[in-house]
Amino acid sequence: MGSTARPTATIGDAYLEKATRFVHGYFTGSAGSLRLMVEVEDAASHKMVERERIDGPVLSSVSALAKRLEPGAGPFPTSNDAATEAWGRGEFEKAVTLDPEFGPAWLSWMNSLARAGDPAGAIKVAERALEHPVKSEIDGLRIELERATLEKDSHAEHEALLKLTARVADPQLLANLGSIEVRAREFRLAEGDYKKLLALEPDNPEAMNLLGYAYGLDGKIADAVARFAEYGKLPGQEPNSVDSLGEVYFMNGEFAEAEKAFLRAHELNPALAAGGDLRKAAYARWLTGDVPGADKIFGRYLDFRARMKDPGVEWEHAVWEFSTGRKDLAIAPSEIPFSQRRHATARVAGRCEVAVGSRAVEESVRSDAAGFRRSVSHGLRRSAGRARRSGGSETNRRPVASAGLGGRAGAPVPGVSQIRRASPYAGFMSFSRLLNVHQKFPERPIADIPATVMKELADAGFGDTLTPGSRIAIGVGSRGISNVATIVRAVVDYWKSRGFSPFLFPAMGSHGAATAEGQADVLAHYGIVEATMGCPVISSLEVTALGSTPEGIEAFMDKNAYKSDGVFLIGRIKWHTDFAGKIESGLFKMMAIGLGKFAGAQRYHTFAYRLGLEHVIRSIGRQVLRSGKILGGLAILEDANHNTAQLTAVPVNQMEKKEEELLALAKSWMGRIPVKEVDILIIDEIGKTYSGAGMDTKVVNRSVNGEYNPWDTAPRIHRIFVRGLSDRSYGNGVGVGMADVINDRLLKVIDWTPTQINSLTASTPAAIRTPAHFPTDEMCLEKFWPTVGKFQKSDVTIAWIANSMELARLRLSENLRAEIEANPMLEIEGEAEPLDFDESGNLHNLMDVAMVGH
Fold it and tell me: Which residue in 136, 176, 235, 780 has the most C-beta neighbors within 10 A?
């Protein structure tokens, strides 16, 4: 099967690794024997190009498969079946008792204790594990690394990483090693680490950026320039590469060049760091001795922030004046009309409204300015050193030394510390500040959706066996599918081009308030009407009975669809919010619950209460297939950015098996909240447009029946605060019951008729319980933070998302920074900011706030 296999967590990660082939595995087993069925998929054609079967005892079969995939692979780290079974069940202590040399079990035990907040217990387990060698040397080194990390022993962590990276070609280990060596100011060693990382992943943008910084910290400006130039050639990376170059110039005392780079970065992307490049350019100009010029650039920055309605503009101006030696103006901003100030920045109107005394203002401004003073000292020392080496004087290179700057070092470049914003609630809210975080999900958009639909359906032979003129019923669901109108129109056009007579009908169970008009209205809101689709849209709740399943469940089909010559379905494949299985939300569920309308949906959910929803979906779906009416369907897969990423024609004879395969792929692409545990999750909006349950249960880790944290694939979330309901949910507030606290305004916009119909039909009454509610966002957080088991607000961890579907950009509290920075898929944009309440004590929606930057 080839000799260069590499493990990845998901198919998405494999695409990022530029894999050319994927290995899929299926297994069955009985009486200690395992049958492994392995298929190799070609990444370009998505066709299976190789198949193999391995039979035998479980552990020897797994070891044999590993050898086939990677000839250098060693055997499974234990030969003890009972230890393996205990490990798989999470009984880690039992597993290592049965086999003390079982390294992965020791590591799993350590990690489970650390995640549960018991680092001391994890360290004790590590010490026990290291009392005798484990079977795998690599596992032993990983145990040493985990212990060192938990003990915060940087020397031991460094030694363990050195040993591991000498034995394992692991990009993440190399990145961690480089980070430690940068902190130790061993820049040349870090350069070597990042070069090795790039040898493994030549187009890794983060590694390119880090290598450029390492060169800069080592004073190798020419090398840094070359590396950032390469980095900037990657799609979308030029603005950040130029910004990084500016920071390298700055830290090396090349302030004029730094200013040019920062201004260029702002020109390329004005929203980078929320305008922060102008701020950094102003500091660079100031350090050349041109104070009026610096004030002018900083005025541009304040103008930019004012246009973004930043309430902290006056505060930022005060810190600027304090940092640049103008203390009197800085500490009394509320006493001097802004329009009368003598600087060019005076064109931003307003007064500082922080209701504290001048002494408190001075101390607060002094604190914020101190970070800047520390940050420039490194650049000043570099500048002075270069002046001495070139025969110049320090005074000539640093004409603003009279501003009273100290010589302390150790902080990053200016612009890295976001100024604390003034707010009427600032004195009362002292949660950890929030970081704007970008999850760098792979982008997989289909360039030409209509052409792709045409090709897929033609290649699958749809219509080849039908008589021209046949009436084709095309079922469409109700969820917020990206490009749904374009996709549906392309399907209609395909059938019409083949000489058939298509019509559309809603296949959405009880949605749209369980009325024909309501369901037609749902489709209309997505642009699916006769005028845009080029065919009739026929909505009815009448059904035709199709007989009963072996369990005695009567199946139904939309009456108009049943009278047609064939039924074709259009549906998105994704995980379901109520259960986990091999078939969840998709074409099979649409065949069962969607085609069954209100009568079927209500009955099926009742049976699902006893039999399980996947079982009912499969059983009803098979009964519908027996009707002979189903032609097949078009499966839609979306990536984590909600691009239409794959369109797959599914003939009727492949529907069940193909959907299992597509669901596995879709799950690997789904977005998640990228930390292990969160005390408070803030959600701006819930609604049917984001999830059938109002909020995606597998993102927020809740069950529609009220259970907390039922999914091991999502972070543990202790409290959920929901702020509002999407307008596109049309009053359906299903999912409100999964929140712990909500704002009063959410309750006011719920239409309880469709909400109750939807929830009770699905047998999930807990999903519409009314949680605790308060009149303002500030009050909701104040009332609920003490319930998470923390004594200090600053220790409370927070994640803030716009909704459970759009997760590419979110906010995470600064006390999660270490976890964020350890994840190469995450990028911090701009600087940490406090929770910013308006005058009424409410927050602004994330979608209404610029969240782009560095």
Answer: 780
- Least confident window among 503-512, 643-652, 805-814: 503-512
**Measured in Å, how far apart are the chain's first and last C-alpha atoms?**
42
Tokens of 531: 């005028």
Lowest mean pLDDT among 213-227, 484-498, 597-611, 631-645: 597-611
CA–CA separation, 663 and 659 (whole Å)? 6
Pair 617, 573: CB distance under 8 Å: no
Chain centroid to Cα 835, Å, comes to 21
Sheet holding 471-476, edge to edge: 501-506, 471-476, 566-572, 630-638, 644-651
Structure letter (DSSP) for residue 133: -
The share of the chain scoring above pLDDT 70, in percent, equals 77
What is the spatial distance between Cα 471 and Cα 454, in angstroms, rounded to a whole number?
A: 19
> Counting runs of H as helices and runs of E as strands, what totals does the chain give?
34, 18
- Using alpha carbons, list the distances in angstroms from residue 268 to 238, 239, 243: 8, 6, 10
C-alpha distance from residue 764 to each of 468, 695, 706, 779 (Å): 45, 14, 9, 29
- Distances in Å between the Cα of 393 and the Cα atoms of 290, 382, 396, 401, 545 are 18, 13, 5, 12, 93
Distance separating alpha carbons of residues 265 and 281, to the nearest angstrom: 10
Cβ burial 80-110 (10 Å sphere, 16+ → b, else e):
beebbebbeeebbebbbebbbbbbbbbbbbb
- Run of H or E residues at 662: helix 655-669
On whether the CB atoms of residues 500 and 535 are closer than 8 A, the answer is no
Residue located via tokens 């009975």: 545
Give the separation between CA 425 and CA 524, rounded to whole angstroms: 43
SS (H, E, C) 381-405: HHHHHHHHHCCCCHHHHCCCHHHCC
Q: Are 852 and 829 in contact (CB under 8 A)?
A: yes
Backbone angles phi, psi at 418, to 5 degrees: -70, 135
Residue 319 neighbours by CB under 8 Å, 6+ apart: 330, 365, 368, 369, 372, 419
Residue partners of 87: CB distance under 8 A and separation at least 6: 95, 102, 104, 105, 108
Measured CA to CA in angstroms, residue 566 lies from 470, 471, 633 at distances of: 8, 7, 11
Distance CA 268, CA 514 (A): 51
The candidate with the shortest Cα–Cα distance to 15, out of 44, 49, 51, is: 44
Region label for 737, one of left (φ > 0), alpha (ψ between -120 and 50) or beta (otherwise): alpha
Convert 431-478 into a string of H (helix), E (strand) and C (coil): CCCEEEEEECCCCCCCCCHHHHHHHHHHHCCCCCCCCCCCEEEEEECC
What is the spatial distance between Cα 737 and Cα 254, in angstroms, rounded to a whole number? 57
pTM of the model: 0.47
Q: How far apart are CA 587 and CA 568, in angstroms?
A: 10
pLDDT tens for residues 648-686? 999 999 988 898 899 888 888 888 999 999 999 999 999
Q: How many other C-beta atoms lie within 10 A of the C-beta of residue 541?
A: 18
User: Tokens at residue 372, please?
Assistant: 């800047």
Q: Tell me the C-alpha distance between 434 and 799, whole Å.
A: 8
Long-range residue pairs from 769-774, CB within 8 A, at least 24 positions apart, any chain: 769/706, 769/736, 769/737, 770/736, 770/737, 771/722, 771/736, 771/737, 771/739, 771/740, 771/741, 771/742, 772/740, 772/741, 772/742, 773/741, 773/742, 773/743, 773/744, 773/746, 773/747, 774/741, 774/743, 774/744
Contacting residues for 139 by C-beta, under 8 A, at least 6 apart: 77, 103, 104, 106, 107
Cβ pair 617, 600 in contact under 8 A: no
Instruction: For residue 575, give both structure tokens.
Output: 């995980």
CA distances in angstroms from 769 to 172, 765, 835, listed in the order given: 44, 7, 28
Angle at 681 between CA 680 and CA 683, to 5 degrees: 140
Measured between alpha carbons, how far is 236 from 565 in angstroms, rounded to an integer? 49
Residue type, 298: F
Distance between CA 215 and CA 362 in Å, rounded? Answer: 38
